[in-house]
Write a structure and sequence with these properties.
14 helices; 4-stranded antiparallel β-sheet; 7-stranded mixed β-sheet; 16% strand; alpha/beta; 15 strands; binds ligand 7TS; 2 domains; Aspartate Aminotransferase, domain 2
């Protein structure tokens, strides 16, 4: 990384020595340039975008559309019309479920999801399947999160209409080979929906290279503001899909008993949009680009390796997933023998160490792995080995504090 970690941390107002923030998989911290971008939008460009003909509204529109172009370039989409702004990955996935899936599914059709999906990439499909009389099939993984090509081929049937799969698991940190799975799904004529919520912030994701039909992700996990998310969709699919939400800004003409709808992407962006959020996201993308994915990956790998090594010093800690730290993308989900994860998180919180405890919105996976609930530390490039030391050392006191001999 070209820049010193101290300098990088100074870009993030909340990253002080007091707090050890180890919950970036839930939401990342924000650099000052992103926080200020939202303020700048409201101070300098605020008007309702896409509506007014006056200069200020045109400027607001320009900032919004520039952000769309920044996202397009970032994920390698062919055209900006394939980038739909939503609130978050959850809304992006629901958009596809309510529009594409509900129009395409017939009774007896099948949707294939993996067992490791976040509830946001499972419940929209379950709901669509129930509404249409379709069936959900599960693709199971092993304890390391691995899914083989053979298992995938075996789970696909002639009736599989759609496959939904995360690129990186928010619990195990493992990466699915989206490119291969999407190609196999296409051979069978199924549409492939990738959940990029945990991958887009950490690895380069190119939708044309992966050849996915849809990709969903959230701005807030990739240094951007909360309340802005993205759905990428292939133009030929988006064109055929009915609108998701109805109202202002998504129409061409409206009569007493009908309407024609706006062109892409506006067909899917009903009501006043989150232009300040989009502007903030474009600044987040610029920040990530400046640091570079090579440097991000290198640093996150070093930190993950270090955290693994230190956690292994504690004989009561079991880390879920692969043995190899490089397969974790900064995600360390663990159990501390004899202690409820909520107690682990509460004790760590007394020392201002932020981790997540519970089921991580992936209950089917925890059930499959036969793990009741866990604690998760998730790292980003801005973390330090000192924070990891503080975390591991405090974790080392938890059992004694709860009355165990060691
Ligand atoms: N998909 C994955 C893989 C996720 O990890 C999350 C959020 C979502 C979808 C939903 O994102 P949202 O921005 O729409 O909420 N994951 C987590 C997590 O692991 N801890 O808190 C939120």
């Amino acid at each position: 990384m070209g820049r010193d970690i101290k300098e990088i941390r100074a870009d993030f107002p909340l990253l002080t020595d007091e707090v050890a923030y180890l919950d970036s998989a839930a939401t990342s911290q924000k650099p000052r340039v992103v926080i200020e971008a939202e303020k700048e939008f409201y101070e300098c460009y605020n008007a309702n975008p896409l509506r007014g003909l006056y200069e200020l509204s045109v400027e607001a529109t320009d900032r919004y559309e520039e952000a769309r172009e920044a996202v397009r370039e970032f994920i390698g989409a062919q055209s900006a019309e394939e980038i739909i702004f939503t609130r978050n990955a959850t809304e992006s996935l629901n958009l596809v479920a309510y529009t594409y899936a509900m129009s395409a599914l017939k009774a007896g059709d099948e949707i294939l999801v993996t067992i490791m999906e976040h509830h946001s990439n499972f419940l929209p499909w379950l709901n669509a399947a129930k509404q249409c009389g379709a069936k959900i099939n599960f693709l199971e993984c092993d304890a390391d999160g691995r899914i083989t090509e053979e298992a995938f081929r075996a789970a696909l049937t002639a009736r599989t209409v759609l496959v939904a799969m995360t690129q990186i698991s928010n619990v195990l940190g493992c990466e699915n080979d989206i490119k291969s799975f999407a190609a196999i799904a296409h051979e069978q004529g199924a549409v492939f929906v990738a959940d990029g919520a945990q991958s887009v912030p950490h690895i380069p994701v190119n939708v044309r290279e992966l050849d996915v039909d849809f990709l969903a992700f959230s701005g807030h996990k990739m240094l951007g503001p909360m309340g802005i998310g993205v759905l990428y969709g292939k133009r030929e699919l988006l064109d055929k899909m009915p609108p998701f939400l109805y109202g202002g800004e998504m129409i061409e003409t409206v009569t007493r008993n009908g309407a024609t709808y706006a062109e892409l992407p506006h067909k899917f962006e009903a009501g006043t949009v989150n232009a300040a959020g989009a502007y903030g996201l474009s600044r987040a993308i610029a920040y990530i680009r400046k640091i570079g994915f090579d440097a991000i990956r290198e640093r996150e790998d070093i930190l993950t390796q270090y955290a693994f090594k230190r956690l292994r010093e504690n004989p009561y800690v079991t880390v879920l997933g692969a043995e190899n730290p490089a397969e974790h993308h900064g995600i360390l989900t663990f159990r501390l023998e004899g202690v409820h994860p909520h107690d682990v998180a509460a004790i760590l919180d007394e020392s201002r160490i932020c981790v997540r405890a519970g089921h991580h919105c992936a209950q089917p996976l925890l059930k499959h792995l036969q793990v009741p609930s866990t604690t998760r530390a998730s790292l980003a490039f801005y973390n330090t080995t000192e924070e990891i030391d503080r975390f591991v050392e405090t974790l080392g006191t938890v059992r004694r504090r709860l009355g165990y001999a060691e």
